[in-house]
């Protein structure tokens, strides 16, 4: 197994840096410790190809949207047909009506929907809806959960170590970037996830001020981390009791763990939910779905590109493919192969790892054998440096994993052969790094 030559990527990165800030369009285009990111030319199915002509099996999935693989035929056809009819009509269309109707049919909480272009915007809209509906201001969010890059959303998403997070009972509110207004955190309460008792205490003390609790139903940005049995149902009961809006951020889980999202998978229906990424097969679209009385609380959904005609066409085509039940069964089978293979390799090479699949998302953590309960536990127990090393090494052997740790995206286009090749690469890395 030879390491790939990526000199072309290196040269193009050096040139791009002269014009584009840091040479990347998103800070996650470059993984931790990588000298330069790959410069890609194209993607098809489960593979992407760089400027040096190298082929990579890809588990980044365009950061989540490419559930149908790269350049999916069904979506391409719909998009090309829409290009001929106009990309941005800024009007109600037959397709828009079809999509809105379809979402209300497949998403359990969706009595009404509205659209934005990104998860960031859609979550901001959900915050505003919750505040308008309840007349209250505060939002509870959980440590390590990312809901977008806006000031109020980007709080306590990262930490260098557990100490930085402060007291478990009253966590610090960590800012992640310069220029972020500190006062936006005044209305945000941060808590550790998966801890119903602590949440209950805080909610009972401050229910009169809390508009919403926002959570990812599976905590995807750190680990990822699965909800404890009954955690989501407990969250549902508690928020209903305290008259607080429960928002599920399904930007990652939406369409990936089931057609109706994690709320369908776990059988817990929130008041509002936000979808983006995989909703439109690689085109920018986000949807907010929820109870009619909250969705119609008098908050206009502004945005020039909201429900852009191409994104709507792409979304209808994507959902059309996903409506075949076989799709999720096959994704689960592939996930099972990956998980089984990684666990066996971990045993063989004495590398402790936790690997599990939920729908099309595989979880991979090193340094521990059982999963973790929250971000603190993850920071304390997981071997993050080894994960980063694994990602860097895999890339050199033609397998691309995300720099956002531990989240491995499968697509409908991955094959048994892809998984088997990936496991060979993992074995090679384990053999080389075993001490
Ligand atoms: N919510 C979650 C859970 C995410 O993972 C992300 C992005 O990665 C967002 C929200 C923000 O979505 P977007 O990047 O479309 O603004």
Automatic annotation (TrEMBL):
Its cofactor is pyridoxal 5'-phosphate. It holds the Pfam family Aminotran_3. Keywords: Membrane, Pyridoxal phosphate, Transmembrane, Transmembrane helix. It comes from the Bacteria. The chain crosses the membrane at residues 349-368. InterPro entries: Aminotrans_3, Aminotrans_3_PPA_site, PyrdxlP-dep_Trfase, PyrdxlP-dep_Trfase_major, PyrdxlP-dep_Trfase_small. GO terms for molecular function: pyridoxal phosphate binding; transaminase activity. Belongs to the class-III pyridoxal-phosphate-dependent aminotransferase family. This is Glutamate-1-semialdehyde 2,1-aminomutase.
